[in-house]
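Example record

The entry below shows one chain as it appears in the dataset: sequence first, then structure tokens.
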Amino acid sequence: MNVTTRNPAVKLDFNPDVIPTARKVLLVEDSLVDRHLVAGILHSKPGWSIFFAGSGKEALKILNDSRPDLVLTDLYMPDMDGLELVTAVRASYPKVPIVLMTAHGNEELAIRVLQAGAASYVPKKTLARELHGTLEEVLSTVRFEKNQRLIRESLSYQELRFEIGNDMSSIAPLVSHIESLVSDMNSCEANAKMLVGVALHEAITNAILHGNLELKSGLRDIDEEIFYQAAEERRKKPPYASRRVAVTAILSRDEVRFTIRDEGPGFNPQYLPNPFEPENMDRISGRGMILIRTFMDQVEHNAKGNEVTLIKRKVGI
């Protein structure tokens, strides 16, 4: 699959490469000795601001008041264990990552806490060697996700062009990817996004089967098995094998527009039957066009009949 993109209207008011000068860490540890040990390791390198909590309840209060960038916690505290703390943090502060400090003998609990949503762990015996690297890795992932979210929120226009062959299995991944892009642009509601995906899937299917492979719709009504057997045979031999389908997606906050173009000989769109006529509703071959015209606001064919444009506008514009 070949992909080209054009994003002329991305407006950013931040620098995604800037790393905060002071990363705030909430250290949850009831042992004063271990607190000083971990704080000393963190302060051995610049750029760390540390909050201390001696219990899970105190940690939740600090999270509410100070919103640290990361929680570094022991697995055992006087009032709750690591599993209970992680569960509470994930429920109320899902964007704050949690790193565990583990000791020999509590591996089983550590696994359960990781499965509950902790981001990583560091064995206490290797804190001096691995703590900084682990925290940096986790925070780097958080920064990346935050920057990606800010980019998506700033994106107002996107144009992409995809090219695929005649392998039917490539349609679903392509449509799924485009659906995610539509979601990022907030071009339509969740249910409408799904319907747009169905229409796009049907249009690309038509471009492959009826456009590039030149299969007649009537054959599918007679015998679907023979129809798809013929499709598989033609997909591997000339002139059909070298033909491609081009899908152009233009996404904005007001509408989505797809153009699907095949390399077949085309047809006269004037002779395209009305899919909504009662006699056409029960035909297998007309189902795709019914879905396309029902789910999209506008459907247009070019004069040659080898290109179709689908348009879906955002509700309320």
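Notes for this example: The chain has eleven helices and eleven strands. The domain at 23-152 is CATH 3.40.50.2300 (Rossmann fold).
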